[in-house]
């Protein structure tokens, strides 16, 4: 059905079965190549978005960056005791206005 529609669009009819088979193989190949190109292009365009925009813990410690935590959270103890952040680098956020 699809082959007949394409053949009618081109203004010619495909009479032989061998010609129909070759046309079908070419159309399938063209479809696969188009899908592969589209997938490859979208992966290239989204690759930069997949890179983490936040620094690592090692970078935060090395640069002595401030790190915030929510009031009464276990994160403060984790940052101080296990990850060895200095107390002066930790910032307590207790209200919503503190986040801005």
Rounded to the nearest angstrom, the distance between the terminal CA atoms is 62 Å
Sheet with the most strands, sense and barrel status: 2 strands, parallel
Order of helices and strands: HHHEHE
* Global mean pLDDT: 81
Q: Give the beta-strand count.
A: 2
Oligomer kind:
single chain
Tally of helical segments? 4
Describe the structure.
By secondary structure, the chain is mainly α. The chain contains four helices and two strands. It has a two-stranded parallel ribbon with strand order 1-2. It is rod-shaped and about 80 Å long. It starts with a helix and ends in a 7-residue tail after the last strand. The mean pLDDT is 81.
Name a few traits of the molecule:
2 strands, two-stranded parallel sheet, 100 residues, mainly alpha
Please provide a brief summary of the model:
The protein has 100 residues and is mainly alpha-helical.
SSE blueprint and pairings:
Layout: H1 2-10, H2 17-50, H3 57-62, E1 67-70, H4 75-82, E2 90-93
Parallel strand pairs: 1-2
């Amino acid at each position: 059905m699809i082959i007949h529609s394409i053949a009618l669009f081109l203004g010619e009819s495909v009479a032989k079965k061998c010609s129909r088979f070759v046309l079908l193989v070419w159309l399938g190949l063209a479809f696969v190549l188009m899908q592969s190109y589209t997938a490859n292009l979208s992966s290239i365009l989204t690759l930069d978005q997949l890179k983490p925009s936040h620094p690592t813990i090692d970078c935060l410690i090395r640069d002595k960056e401030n790190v915030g935590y929510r009031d009464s959270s276990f994160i403060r103890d984790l940052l101080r005791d296990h990850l060895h952040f200095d107390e002066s680098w930790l910032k307590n956020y207790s209200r919503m206005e503190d986040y801005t």
